[in-house]
Amino acid sequence: MGGATAAVITDPAGQVELSVVVPAYNEEQRLAPTLDAIRAHLGDSCAWELIVVDDGSGDGTVRVAREAAAGDPRISVVVSETNRGKGHALRLGVLASYGRRVLVTDADLATPIEELDHLAKAMTEGETAAAIGSRARPGARIEVHQSRLRETLGRMGNRLIRAVAVPGIHDTQCGFKLFDGDKARAAFADARLDGWGIDVEILQFFRRRGWPVAEVPVRWSHQEGSKVGAADYGKVLWELGRLKARAVRRVDLVLGALYLLSAVLLYKNLWGDLGRSYLSDSMQDQNQWEWFFAVTADNVAHLRDPLFTTVQNFPDGVNLMGNTPMLGLSVPFAPITLAFGPTLTWALVLTLGMAATAYAWYWLFARRVTENRWAAGLGGALAAFAPPMISHANAHPNFCVLFMIPLIIDRALRLCEGRAIRRDGLVLGLFTTYQIFLGEEVLLLAALGMALFALSYALARRDVARAAIRPLAQGMAYAVGVCLVLVAYPLYRQFAGAQSYHSVLHGDSAGNSPLALIEFAGRSLWGDDTTADRLALNRTEQNAFYGWPLVALAFALVVRLWRRPLVKALAFTGVAAAVLSLGQKIRIPYTDVVFTGPWKLFAHKPLFESVIEGRVAMICAPALGALIALGAGRLALGRTRVIRAAGFTAIALALLPIVPTSFPTNARPEVPEFISSGMWKKYVGPGESLVPVPLPDPGSAEALHWQSSTGLGFSVPGGYFNGPWGPDRIGIYGASPRWTSNLFGDIRSGKPIPDIGTDWQNQARADLAYWHAGVLVLAPQPQAPQLYETVSRLLGGKPGTKVGGVWIWDVSQVR
């Protein structure tokens, strides 16, 4: 009895100090010894009550409980008319309790009642809201083990529970838990689960409220006749799913729906006729991306190498890892691509990806920036639907589908907190690995943005930086380790495998004009194509265009909230990214003054040398999103209605001009019957290619649509991809040029047909042999007559044959 005093303290006023709740279902044989053991341990050391909850038993459990209650008024019995599960029984018992502390324990006392002393001590010394028995913490003793199968299922279940519900708690299912009474009653009143998942639900409630929980090692023995069957592990998983669904707030659902609706409206013209719609501003990128999705699905279906193909640029092939097929999405979407075609995959990736990105930024801002979820939602919308993202959403899903970046940022911040360094480091490594298979360049830009933020925040909060250095370094070591193991081979293939290249040079004029930072994009509500086209490389590279109202609002918010270290870091990150995006040479608008920009420091460094520096301004989008979220959250707490109204009006006026409009589409050319009907099969033998005239290249890649829409049955030379050129293997867009492909390209662009003699014919014969050409195909196009004459002359005056709506030349014998 001596230990009982440590468990509870007698209240002189007679208040119940401890309530013990015992759920029971068909426990006629074990209940009486359990009640005797509890009564013996507690004795007269404090004011206590013992509540037995019968869960619709079919034996004499109620009789045994009532006999015990008849002999001791401190024992009471609660009866459920039907068997509804442990969770329901515990809820009835805890809500019927009065104790300052509440102990819940299983009827079999697998954890001896004497372990109550350890839990009580942990609660008192640790000032926690609960102390739960654990069989998984150091110091725990398993005196009688379960079967190997049940132990394995239990460990697997605990890992899953930690991952999805209560990270950091190693054993949620040990039925021996001591709670603060009032907090327990609040938690059980909020609970909805009736089964074994109630333990997880209660602990999740405590975590949401910020009530600390101590996990205490205990003795435990498996008791024969346990009511936990193998099927109950499955029921716990089902209840976990219900818990996750219930954890979603109404605002989460509303914002998710709004993000999805916004994305659908952006692409409504594309969705209006998937069979024929082509995004007008995507140039040849929609053809390229649909080809990427198609070739990945084909590789998956036929168990081919997913990192290389010769379907394009035959016979040299394409290094897919050195391009952007987004294997992280194109592989899981392969069944959809195979069943419904790559255009549906293209539309789904863009639409769902944009919505998911907005939601991910919202989730990060709600966790890290502001408690007001509507304000966080506004910031998430800006981060995902900012003008640069909309520009890339025409053609570059790898630059607008960024849902992993907020998750990576959050995991890095968790490392700085140092709570679970190994786990968070490993998860960060897995997240980074997945992002590599979504887009490497955007990961590099994200790392640059995170480095700018970390540097500025460290200067503002040196104490926080010093505390974060060690856990961050340790966690990063885990992250780098797991990431390198997973991506070492793919990266080797990318940088040293077939058709690898060293860099893609974009010249020294790929930076933004300073005017681009304050002007409006072509797809913004207040924008126009003429101004935007003048200040950008093309309509898919409008990498700034935030508009002067938003820039002015951001400046005002920074001034108003300058004392906050977060604001200082966001401001520095945004300004630094904007300046870097101006490129190696910065020209002062309306003057001839040019000076060297800070990007010069990065321009020729490994990896950075392939970056279009104007894209660095994309870092400003989440920085502005976080700043707007913080400002809107502060406004929501404003003292007067006038201040709130004025503030939100200013935010609306700053964001309204950059609201994106729907993407325009046009009707794509029909696939020639010669291709769509399979007539080509008669002319292209094994190991041969079909040669479009002119060859597909970044300026005209319709032949890739011929392939992707008909099952990739034939290979083509040329194409639209990144590949090597010259002895230095410099990266270029498209295939290494050959005499004949250059000639076709010149004629297509309107140049006159040269004097084609023996030299040209010999060169054409050599090129056709190199391409293993089976047939030349000339589809209807603006320069078709000139191209027809050029091909005929190259082939010694051989006329073409009109088949299936195209002119063809069977050249398998010519070679």
TrEMBL record:
The record describes its membrane topology as:
Single-pass membrane protein
tRNA processing as a keyword of this entry, yes or no, is no
Bilayer-crossing regions: 336-362, 374-390, 443-460, 472-492, 545-562, 569-590, 610-630, 642-659
* Entry-linked InterPro entries: DPG_synthase, Glyco_trans_2-like, Nucleotide-diphossugar_trans
Residue limits of the Glycosyltransferase 2-like domain?
A: 19-179
Q: Where in the cell is it found?
A: Endoplasmic reticulum membrane
Any idea of its EC number? 2.4.1.117
The record ties this protein, via Gene3D superfamilies, to: Spore Coat Polysaccharide Biosynthesis Protein SpsA, Chain A
Q: In which pathway does it act?
A: Protein modification; protein glycosylation
Provide the catalytic activity annotation.
a di-trans,poly-cis-dolichyl phosphate + UDP-alpha-D-glucose = a di-trans,poly-cis-dolichyl beta-D-glucosyl phosphate + UDP
> Enzyme group, top EC level?
transferase
**A matching Pfam family:** Glycos_transf_2
Q: Which UniProt keywords apply?
A: Endoplasmic reticulum, Glycosyltransferase, Membrane, Signal-anchor, Transferase, Transmembrane, Transmembrane helix
Q: Which family does it belong to?
A: Belongs to the glycosyltransferase 2 family.
State the PANTHER family in the record. Answer: DOLICHYL-PHOSPHATE BETA-GLUCOSYLTRANSFERASE, GLYCOSYL TRANSFERASE
Q: What is this protein called?
A: dolichyl-phosphate beta-glucosyltransferase
From which organism does this entry originate? Streptomyces xanthochromogenes
Its ancestry begins with: Bacteria, Bacillati, Actinomycetota, Actinomycetes, Kitasatosporales
